[in-house]
Design brief:
Low-confidence stretches: none
Mean pLDDT: 96
Order of helices and strands: EEEEEEEEEEE
Radius of gyration: 13 Å
Largest sheet: 7 strands, mixed
Strand content: over 45%
Number of strands: 11
Length: 118
């Protein structure tokens, strides 16, 4: 199971920290990523982190503003989002990835809504 949380309504320029708890799998064996889907748009890649947290990878649209991290002891991956823009509004999901930006399984757990007002 993949359960994201931490979304909400924030003004442009604000920050949010998303969390995603992964159960039922060997979390530390997987590279993990964040994806998002805005209304009427395809789901897109946002960020990824490898199994040991030694490498990260970001979409150009969020580079320098977002930071991905993980805690293998807690089976949790995080997404710190700063300097938010209205175009960041979307439902955010976490998922295991094939490095760096391809979802590994066709399964999307519970996402979390992020809404950025202008």
């Amino acid at each position: 199971q993949l359960q994201a949380s931490g979304g909400g309504l924030v003004q442009a320029g604000g920050s949010l920290r998303l969390s995603c708890v992964v159960s039922g799998r060997t979390f530390s064996s997987y590279n993990m990523g964040w994806f998002r889907q805005a209304p009427g748009k395809e789901r897109e890649f946002v960020a990824a982190i490898n199994r040991s947290s030694t490498s990260t990878y970001y979409a150009d649209s969020v580079k320098g503003r977002f930071a991905i991290s993980r805690d293998n002891a807690k089976n949790t991956v995080y997404l710190q989002m700063n300097s938010l823009k209205p175009e960041d509004t979307a439902v955010y999901y976490c998922a295991p990835v094939m490095w760096p930006d391809r979802v590994l399984y066709d399964y999307w757990g519970q996402g979390t809504q992020v809404t950025v007002s202008s």
